[in-house]
Design a protein that fits this description.
The chain is α/β, with parallel strands linked by helices. The chain contains four helices and 24 strands.
Length: 223
């Protein structure tokens, strides 16, 4: 795969994972599944970090404020290990402006149709299926066992959580969170900054932005 070839070419410099929480651990596991010999280091979001801490046999080599220095000494590639969409968006823009490369990571068990396309910095977990003519923007998390079916469009900075299903020709805006085990039926749109709670079943389009929906069928939460 092109992704594996890209990562193998980065062995001399290694790759930085920005973040030290739960999603960073998911990314570390994903990197090891792609190439266990790839040099990887962690960067803490907190300036007050423990430089002696080791997470999943991976050292913390710096903090958020040291990104410029790390770029100057030769690190070229960053993967964002942060689950929160808004924080991940801000970090993506910062890292992009520092001219780091933002590779897509795809677990070897994922199935991606050859007609699908992705932009920068996406993380695709194990057993994901991405169907024909799917278009995925930048900086998205497509979590384990999710299904993104034919002709669906996903914007930027979204999180499609565990075992969610987009049934086909679904259009997702930017910074959308789709909770675990949610289903969005065919030809439905979901507006930007929408949160879908776990197990939500979306049967009609959601045009309202910045709102939270739950249930079967999806209904807006009272404010």
């Amino acid at each position: 795969m092109l992704l594996v070839i890209f990562l193998m070419n980065k062995k001399e410099k290694g790759i930085l994972v920005l973040g030290c929480g739960g999603h960073a651990r998911f990314v570390l596991s994903l990197l090891k599944s792609i190439d266990n010999s790839m040099p990887v280091a962690l960067v803490s979001l907190d300036d007050d970090y423990d430089p002696n801490e080791v997470i999943m046999n991976t050292a913390i080599v710096g903090c958020h404020s040291s990104l410029t220095q790390l770029r100057e000494i030769g690190f070229e590639s960053v993967v964002l290990g942060v689950g929160d969409n808004a924080i991940r968006k801000a970090l993506f823009e910062e890292v992009f402006n520092l001219q780091f490369e933002l590779p897509c990571l795809v677990h070897p068990s994922a199935i991606i149709d050859s007609s699908a396309s992705m932009s920068l910095g996406n993380v695709v977990g194990p057993n994901v299926v991405i169907g024909s003519e799917v278009v995925i923007g930048s900086n998205n998390i497509i979590n384990s066992s999710s299904v993104i079916e034919h002709q669906s469009i996903i914007g930027n900075h979204c999180h499609i959580s565990l075992s969610s299903v987009l049934c086909g020709a679904v259009h997702i805006g930017d910074e959308v969170f789709v909770g675990a085990n949610s289903t969005i039926i065919e030809k439905v749109s979901v507006g930007s900054n929408t949160i879908l709670g776990a197990g939500t079943n979306v049967i009609r389009s959601i045009s309202k932005n910045n709102a939270t929906f739950v249930g079967n069928p999806a209904r807006i939460l009272s404010k």
